[in-house]
Structure formats: structure tokens, C-alpha cells
Amino acid sequence: MNEIITELRVEDIHPNKKHYRTVTDKAVAALVQRIMLSHYIKPIVVLRDGDIFLIIEGHHRHAAAKELGMETLPAVVVDDYDEAQQAIWMVTSNYHVLETPIETSRGSQLMLTTGVPYEDAARAYDKTPEQMERVAAGVRLCGDYAEDMSLDRLFAVAEFEDDEEAAKRIMTCPEGEWERAYDKIKKERRLAVAVEAAKAIIEASGVELLGACVPGGMSYLGHDSSEAPEGATHAQMSVQEYMGTVAVYWYGKPADSTEDLEVAAAREKRDRRRAAFEAADARRLAFVRDHLTGKGPTTYGNELRDLAVQVWEDGGACIAKHLDDGPLSEITGLTPRIYAAILSSVGQRARFTLNTTDWYWQQRGRAETIAYFAALVAVGYELTDIETECLDVLTRDPEEADDE
User: Fold this and answer.
1) Beta pairing, strands 232-240 & 245-252
2) How many helices (H) and strands (E) does the chain have?
3) pLDDT digits over 249-280, tens only?
4) For residue range 281-291, what is the model confidence (pLDDT) as tens digits?
5) Cα distances (Å, whole numbers) of residue 379 to 305, 372, 388
């Protein structure tokens, strides 16, 4: 590069359209003060383009010179830099200034789109060549969206290069929501893999796959084994969407003895109760989601939100654990998501209270659970049979329950 410093007219110097950093008024104002104090300005680096000069390094200094009304500016002029060399110079000359994540991403994209090899681009940002290859893949998939994406988001998009719909979900959601969308897609994929694996185990075992209910008299033989236990004739899959897992329950032929039949009947009742609770939970969460997003009935009040505020003020909400709870994970916006997280926390405690047979835990969660379902009913929720049954027991006077 020609190291000769020359004085150029400020009006002949122009910002480079490829410059990826934001020239801020605050930074320019600070630079103006330093120049006035020191009476010195470091030469900028420019590329000759006909009769004008394009800045490679020194956009802030150029803006400060214009602010000070300077007529000329010291500069090093280069004539033989190709686009890749210009990109490397722009990125590496900014090491002394902290970049935002978006600026780091734009700098990486600038190098890759101008032909800088993965190895060189990786060294500029302390990344690996493989990471830069993933950035390039993300840029190809995102197109114009890539300009306003961080490297982490481009990595996430590139991970779904084989799934156009999944990649689109990550690239088109708001900046503050893409990580949640990414985690949700990962969970969906894990669940799909788990479902296929469970089906393969059941098919290989040669047993019959059951639906939601287990026929009367079947004997429970265990769950989650990689193969059917001895005597198994039927299997049932329990898909736990919130956890992204699948459990397989194994059952045998109808028992012969009266005792076994009684045990099987009790187990069948328990299974039906568990299925009823799971269906009620899903229905209730979907109702809360629709209520908070304005998709539910609009003729009711704010009892659910009022309850959430009360629980928050009493210190009874575990928000961090419930931000991605099932249907509520679809809610966007800070305030609705906080309401959703608090209500999800309350809902899980309410389900435990309804389902437990331990008197102590029933009484401990009694008041909050009753208040929770009262608020739900007040905003238009219709109780299921299992919820009505359990609330009937819970709302009895404790002394009356003791007498029974």
C-alpha cells in the first residue's frame, strides 16, 4: 500500500457504501473535542475512484472534519485494493472501537460477500472457518434479512438449512423472539425423533399400539424400556409436548385372577384420570393464551390479570421456569408474557393441589387454587368434569372433610 500521506479536499472524500458501522453523533462530537484539544487528526485511508475518494478507514474522522469546517484532510490513498482487501481493512481497522453484535455480523457478512476466504474472515473475528461457513449459509438463506441479524441468529438459521419453513420462522420473527422460536423448533424436532423412535420400538416388538385409553383388565408391565417386557401384548405412547419427550407404557394380556383384575381396573381408572388431567391442562393453557392475546371472549373482565398481579405482589411467581410453557410460549410482547408466566406458575401449583391426595398439600394450595379457577370462570372458562370433581372436594370445609 502507498504510505504517502497527502492532503485531500474534504468535499472530494465520500463515505463508502460498504461501511457497515453506524457513525453516531455522540462519537463524532467526542472526536471533535479531541481534535480541537490536540490540534491533530490521524490520516484516514481512502480508495481512489475516478475524481473522488472513498473512505476505507476514518468515517468518524471525516464527519468530524466536516463538523469543524476543515477544507482538507490528511489521507493515505490506495489505488490497487480489491473489494476483499477493502473489507478486511474496514473490519481490522476498527479493533479499537467496541462493535455491537449486529455490527460484528455485518462486518463478517461484508468480508464473506466480497470474497474473503473463510480462514481470513475467521481470524478477523476470532472465529473458526467452520463458523464462517455457517454464517455464509445463513446469509444465503436469509437474503436481505441477514443485514439486521447477529451471528448467533445466522448460526441458528443455518442449522435448519434443510428445513425451509423452520429457517423462515427464525429469520422472520422479531429480534427479541428468535431465540425462543429456535428453542421451540429444536424441541419439536426432538419430539418428532422421539415419537418415531417409540413407534419403531413398538413395531419391532410386535405388540398392538393403544390409543388414549387402556382396555379393562390389562396388566401394566412397565414403561420406557427399549424393548417390550416379557408378556407384553399392547403398548401406549404418552407424548409430553412440553418436555419434548415420549414415554412408552407396556401392558399384558387380561389377568385371570380376581385380584389381578381389581389391580388392572384400578390402574385403568388411574390412567383415565391422568389422561383427563392432561387434556384439561392443555385446554386450560390454550384458554389462558387466547384470553391474554385477545382471541378469547371479550365480554369479561380482568380477573385473571388481577390474580397474576396479586400473586406477583405476594412473591408467589416463578417466572423463569414458566416462560416457555406449552401454548403460552406462543405469546409475544413483554407484558403479556409476564402475565402468562405468572399464570402458568399458578396453574401448575393448582394442578398439583387438585391431583394430590395428601391433606397437608391440599390445604396449603387450597386458597390459591380456588382463586385461580374462580378467576378463570369469571373470564369465561368452562370447567371440565375432572376439574369440577376435584374442586368440589377441595372447596368442602376442612372440618367436614375430616368428619368423612
Assistant:
1) antiparallel
2) 16, 9
3) 888 875 555 556 666 677 778 778 888 888 88
4) 888 888 888 88
5) 10, 11, 17
Nearest CA among 231, 349, 242, 253 for reference residue 286: 242
* Domain co-membership, 105 together with 136: yes
Do residues 220 and 312 both lie within one domain? no
The answer on 392 and 289 residing in a single domain is yes
CB-CB contact of 178 with 190 (8 Å): no
Residues 232 and 285 occupy one common structural domain: no
**Whole-model pTM above 0.90?**
no
In a domain, 87, yes or no: no
Same domain, 299 and 356: yes
Separation of alpha carbons 139 and 86, rounded Å: 20
Residues 279 and 390 occupy one common structural domain = yes
B/e letters for 6-38, b = 16+ CB within 10 Å, e = fewer, are eebebeebeebebbbbeeeeebbeebbeebeee
Report the C-alpha gap between 273 and 277 in whole angstroms: 6
Q: CATH number of the domain at 56, please.
A: 3.90.1530.10
**Grid coordinates in use for 49?**
475512484
Say how many domains are in the chain: 4
Q: Would you list the DSSP string of 284-351?
A: HHHHHHHHHTT-S-SSS-SHHHHHHHHHHHTT---HHHHTT-GGGGG--SHHHHHHHHHHHHHHHHHH
| Residue 94: inside a domain | no
Give domain status of residue 266, yes or no.
no
Q: b/e string for 342-365 if b means 16 or more Cβ within 10 A?
A: bbbbbbebbbebbeeeeeeebeeb
Low-confidence residues of the chain, pLDDT below 70? 1-3, 95-97, 216-217, 242-244, 254-264, 296-300, 316-329, 397-404
The residue segments making up the domain with residue 73 are 5-81
